[in-house]
Amino acid sequence: MKLQKITPYQLFALIFIFEIGSAILFGLGFDAKQDAWLAILLALVGGVVVLLIYIWLYYRYPTLTFVNYTTRNLGFLGKIISHGYILYFLYIAARVIRDLGELTTMYLLPATPLLVINLLGLLIVGYALYLGIEVIARASEITIGAVYAFFTFILIIIMFSDLVKIENLLPILDNGFMNVLKAAYPQIVTFPFGELIVFTMIFPHLNKKNKLLKTSLLSLLLVGLTLSFISALIYSVIGGSAMSCTFPFVCVVRLVNVAEFIQRFEGSAIIFLLAGGLAKITLFMYAALIGFQDIYKTNDYRPFLLPSLVLVLFLSIMIAGHLAQHLEIGLKIVTYYIHLPLQIGIPLIVLLISLIKRDKLKDEELDQQ
Asked: pLDDT (tens digit, 9 = 90+) per residue, 13-24?
């Protein structure tokens, strides 16, 4: 398959939609209570550092994906680790489709089996993956405006519906700075910011290499500010209930009632949440498929598409018996034992080894590629 190209703006849109994705579903940082918004901004600093590691690796290997330069620096061990990353991408895709399935059964289709909902979602993802990254990127370029406009409208409506109570956000740092720090690290750093590891498989598609740093950082900063504002808004509306509500953003939207005329927006909000989540799943699976293509030196990832979809569907049902268990695994196990080593530990080791070996793609290697 010929290497497809994306523009800087398309990369900006992909990062934004990917990061917002399922993060907006659950709300972030509510362990810090009214300082959740501050915890997100604090975690954003760590997210920027993690992104800079990925960009540094890209500058050393501008035509290679993460699995390529991991194998190049770590040899046979690197190939084993690369297979681990493919499974990681597929596993997180399964977790996100499970999130969306639970959301749909809770609010839209309570009588529909989770398996059926997940299958329908993956059929959409599979079609997008079959078309390729250029089509996915063009879709995100169109979608980002609609998504941002819709959520801006929703947030304005919330602010003008007498739901917001600023006193819920006061006093700032009432529980101390350490409480905010614990809410930010490592939970918010790894989810959603550390999930940008996916883009180490996508950066080589960028058609203007010199725009990568600016484009990525601007998109990430917009994501951080947006999530921080949304968390503040949620807590200002429902206060401490945000910690017990499974999908706090939906809980807030359900309360909207302006003059008994503008109300019942949760259905529309959920549809947009589903669109963002499906985009996230698509990119996780795309990263896995490109990993298969690179490791096995094939020209097309499509032969791996159907088996990957089946595996993700199977995992989405089997990873947990119920929603509470699913969320507990995500918070207590995935963060510490999967996200941290794969998002930060191994990329940092690969970067350090490449610096010690002074290994990077030379001009003649770039010409050959």
From this structure: 999 999 998 888
The verdict on residue 196 lying in a domain is yes
In total, how many domains does the chain have? Answer: 1
Give the integer Cα–Cα distance in Å for 135 and 267: 27
Q: How confident is the model at residue 262 (pLDDT cuts 50, 70, 90)?
A: low
pTM: 0.95
Considering the domain boundaries, does residue 309 fall inside one? yes
Q: Tell me: pLDDT of 137 over 70.
A: yes
What range defines the domain where residue 30 resides?
Answer: 12-357
- The answer to whether residue 17 sits within a structural domain is yes
CA–CA gap between residue 56 and residue 61 (Å, rounded) = 9
* C-alpha 99: how far from chain center: 13
pLDDT tens, position by position, 82-96: 999 999 999 999 999
Interatomic CA distance for residues 122 and 144, integer angstroms: 21
The per-residue pLDDT for range 202-244, each reduced to its tens digit, is 999 999 999 999 999 999 999 999 999 999 999 999 988 888 8
Neighbours of 213 (CB within 10 A): 15
Residue 1 lies in a domain: no
Q: What is the spatial distance between Cα 39 and Cα 182, in angstroms, rounded to a whole number? A: 8
Amino acid occupying residue 130: Y
